[in-house]
């Protein structure tokens, strides 16, 4: 009996030892996965409910799911991590992993991406997407990569038109002397000057106050941003010039991406592309809803006919020429865009 107990006791001890050892191993494994799990920060300028915000949250969810928790992305929305130009630098440096950027403010650092900021370079949003989904998109993405950014997917941002506090715009002359807010990019300042206005580069978050206090008389954006920012409450004339069609990217720091395993690179791309499809779907709904909302609030929307647009387009010739004189190697990319059906 005694001996049996002793044997039993010995067995238990061994089992305990094994269990302890096993416990340590599992603890070590879970520790190493938690140490290895990447915690990323992501930047987005838009508010709750905006198509990009919903899509970036979906991206974050898909990312965790597809990498089985190896990558977790915490999204910071509404520009809480700073303005867009600074955030672009932060992602290039790797302080932030990801940003949902407009190619507009990226243009000054990546000339290939800047071609989309040539006013009227695309003739419709549909054509812009056919171009971005093909060779043009590849060349632009390659240009971004040279600057430390990898475009995982592109979002829809519709077309941008002028709005102001004074009157309907139907011809370039109507902008004469008007102070117009633009995003940080010399091409936009050049565009406003060529139309006879005074450009005022300014961060997105400052535009509402600037319009309200008459620091600027106008700005330009798509319907969803015009509405989500409340700009329509303080600048009640929206004129459909549709002078810029600027795609937006889900951009990741190139080194962070290149250091991932092939499996995780694939998961990250898939997550971005799937959530971009959601963004494009939500965008097509939101652009209508936002237009209806601003119209219902009393905004005067005016069409600019194809014929009237010719005058705006003609005024942009020196802007295009100036850009291509500085970047002659981009002539073929611009030609490729224009030849996209
Ligand atoms: C919005 C873009 C956003 C820009 C903003 C702007 O989605 O990225 O920051 O315009 O005008 O349409 O600054």
Helix and strand layout, with pairings?
Elements: H1 2-36, E1 38-43, H2 51-66, E2 71-76, H3 84-93, E3 98-102, H4 103-106, H5 111-114, H6 125-132, H7 135-146, E4 149-155, E5 160-164, E6 179-182, H8 186-194, E7 198-201, H9 207-212, E8 218-221, H10 223-228, H11 231-234, E9 237-244, E10 248-253, H12 254-258, H13 262-296, E11 300-303, H14 306-315, H15 317-326, H16 331-338
The structure holds beta-D-glucopyranuronic acid.
The site of beta-D-glucopyranuronic acid (BDP) has 10 residues, from loops.
Describe it for me?
This protein has about 350 residues and is of the alpha/beta class. The chain has 2 domains: about 160 residues, Bacterial extracellular solute-binding protein, family 7 (D-Maltodextrin-Binding Protein, domain 2), CATH 3.40.190; about 110 residues, Bacterial extracellular solute-binding protein, family 7 (D-Maltodextrin-Binding Protein, domain 2, 3-Layer(aba) Sandwich), CATH 3.40.190.170. The protein has a 5-stranded mixed β-sheet, sandwiched between helices. The longest helix is centred in the first third of the chain and has 35 residues. Bound molecules: beta-D-glucopyranuronic acid. Beta-D-glucopyranuronic acid binds next to loops. The site of beta-D-glucopyranuronic acid has 10 residues, from loops.
